[in-house]
Amino acid sequence: MKVKLQAYSTALFSTWIFLEELGLLFDCGDGCASHLMQKSRKVKHIFVSHPDRDHLGGLLQFNQLNARGEYPKLYYPADSSSFPFLHEFSSKFDPQITLPEWTAVRENDVIDVHPDYSVKCIRNEHVPSPLTKSLSFILYRKKKKLKAEFSELSSSELTKLKSTTVITELELRPVLAYSADTPVENDGRWQDVPVLIHEATFLKKSELHSGRERNKHSSLEELIPMVKQAGINQLLISHFSSRYSEEEITSDLSRLIEEHELKIPVSLILPGRTFSIELEIE
Ligand SMILES: [Zn+2]
Questions:
Q1: Measured in angstroms, how far is the CA atom of residue 181 from the centroid of ligand 1?
Q2: What tens digit of pLDDT does each residue of 9-50 get?
Q3: How far, in Å, from the CA of 122 to the mean position of ligand 1?
Q4: CA 187 → CA 69, 158, 197, 225, 248, distances in Å?
Q5: Strand pairing of 117-123 and 110-114?
Q6: With 70 as the cut, is the pLDDT of residue 212 above it?
Q7: pLDDT band at residue 209, thresholds of 50, 70 and 90?
Q8: Is the peptide bond before 72 cis (omega within 30 degrees of 0)?
Q9: With the C-alpha atoms ordered 89, 16, 120, 133, is the resulting torsion angle positive or negative?
Q10: Ligand 1 mean position, distance from CA 126 (Å)
Q11: Distance 282 CA to ligand 1 centre (A)
Q12: Which residues contact 55 (CB under 8 A, 6 or more apart)?
């Protein structure tokens, strides 16, 4: 399936990632509706990773233009109180719209977003808290496959068996993942995900604690070796700090790609710019 991806992502200011054919939006930072315009009507499911303003600041306008019946459905980290507050405020501020209920989600929750695709919520350590305050997401392709115990049977035996027994089971295969804001995790969570959208707020590891934020982020220097190890086929890098110029980002990236012999397509969602790409997902 070909999917058009449009995105904007600059640390502190705004992040949103739109997958058009799936009607799927990851995060809804400032300017999401004004960039997507009529296309924002296509969004059916919004997954907001965490309550930082650069990830939810566009929701008021987005919903005022697009809330209709049960859509767009919105999912948020279960222990963040910002979302119930915003839902209440939004409903009072724009009483002419009927805002759908928003759903609190936790680690390992799987939400169907399309007949063939689901999104799984993954905990990340962006917010230092044992509670569910920050999530990453993996998009899975759902496929029915024959149960292993029946793999030796002939097609006529399978046909006969089908009338009395369930012979298939659901297989979830990862097709794309969105890290949202997170430190780099080397625990295999992205292993063999074909397309990874991962943040790199900073270029160098030594810069990680230079900001005022106590929340944790990634550096490009840590991201590239992790991606090499994880067997990713395609990488999109988001959430750069606006302190870096395009030249600084591309020169660090080229050096790291060479150093770690990374031989996959890498795209940059550069600070202050909208980005679009067509992806081939399974
Ligand atoms: Zn952010």
A1: 6
A2: 999 999 999 999 999 999 999 999 999 999 999 999 999 999
A3: 17
A4: 40, 40, 17, 13, 29
A5: antiparallel
A6: no
A7: confident
A8: yes
A9: negative
A10: 9
A11: 29
A12: 15, 27, 28, 29, 48, 49, 180, 181
User: Token pair of 221, please?
Assistant: 């220097």
Summarize pLDDT for 232-257 with one digit per residue, the tens.
Answer: 999 999 999 999 999 999 999 999 99
Q: Running DSSP on this structure, what letter comes out for residue 37?
A: G
What pTM does this model have?
Answer: 0.92
Q: Is 237 exposed, middle or buried (0-12, 13-18, 19+ CB in 10 A)?
A: buried
pLDDT in tens, 148-188: 899 898 988 888 888 888 898 888 999 999 999 999 998 99
Distance between CA 16 and CA 233 in Å, rounded? 22
* H or E element that contains 172: strand 168-178
Instruction: Fill in the amino acid letter for 224.
Output: I
In angstroms, what is the span from residue 11 Cα to ligand 1's centroid?
A: 5
Instruction: Measure the CA–CA gap between 17 and 12, rounded to whole angstroms.
Output: 16
